[in-house]
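Issue: ligand-bound run for magnesium ion - logging full I/O for the record.

Environment: standard queue, default settings, no custom constraints.

Inputs:
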Amino acid sequence: MSESIIKLHNIYKSFGDKHILQGLNLEIHQGETFVILGPSGCGKSVSLKIITGLLAPDCGKVEVFGKDVSRFNEHQWSDIRKDFGFLFQNAALFDSLNVEENIAFTLKQSKQYSKEEMAHIVDKNLQLIGLPGIQKKMPSELSGGMKKRVGLARAIALNPKVIFYDEPTTGLDPIRASGIDQLINKLKDTLNITSVVITHDLKSAFTIADRVGLHFDGKISNISTPNEFKSSKNPMVQQFLTGSTSGPIQ
Ligand SMILES: Nc1ncnc2c1ncn2[C@@H]1O[C@H](COP(=O)(O)OP(=O)(O)O)[C@@H](O)[C@H]1O
Ligand SMILES: [Mg+2]
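Outputs:
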């Protein structure tokens, strides 16, 4: 088995009297696509924010790339985040910037690239996402699926080791959603990237996942391969798979 590059140990997080994470454990292996499934409002985005240092846990330990980052300050986190790419829910493109400027945004901020290098990376990434030559288009000229793809081209601009997707197919029709799934698989295969994906799109989950886990009751449980998950007799998994309104998930 590959090494774990992200480890969450016994994480707790509450907002007032809402106890969202209650002893959550998770390990993400190098090179895998790990899908977190779970009902709305159960804390999936909160968990992702804890992994990426955008929220601090109340207690518990977070390890990233073998380092204990639990007490990291913002400056130290920004160093870690250089190896992270994000495609977050509602992560919009900047409307006033064209596609090229959107993708080059983080490259520019890093101040490590010449104009030519940035143009080359933009060109290469647009080819990778299957939208070559749209550098000068404005976001308003793009469909929802295209915007997501450009968001992905931006997310991989700095060659991340891990990419985090928060509901990447939500709001897309089934054909566009499949396109994003194929792209997630392609990035994994071509860039050997590790992916952590939150979704409640089961079809998407089973198309992309090496392992899945169910986020419920403050924990991630039933971690298994898609096939094991599909044949699980666990009542929570069964309810999630069938969409039944009666069961442990209310
Ligand atoms: N910064 C915050 N302050 C207060 N409550 C929050 C905050 N972030 C999330 N929550 C609450 O935590 C719960 C889980 O949220 P979230 O992780 O976004 O759910 P989901 O599983 O749908 O991604 C929700 O009840 C949400 O209202
Ligand atoms: Mg969410």
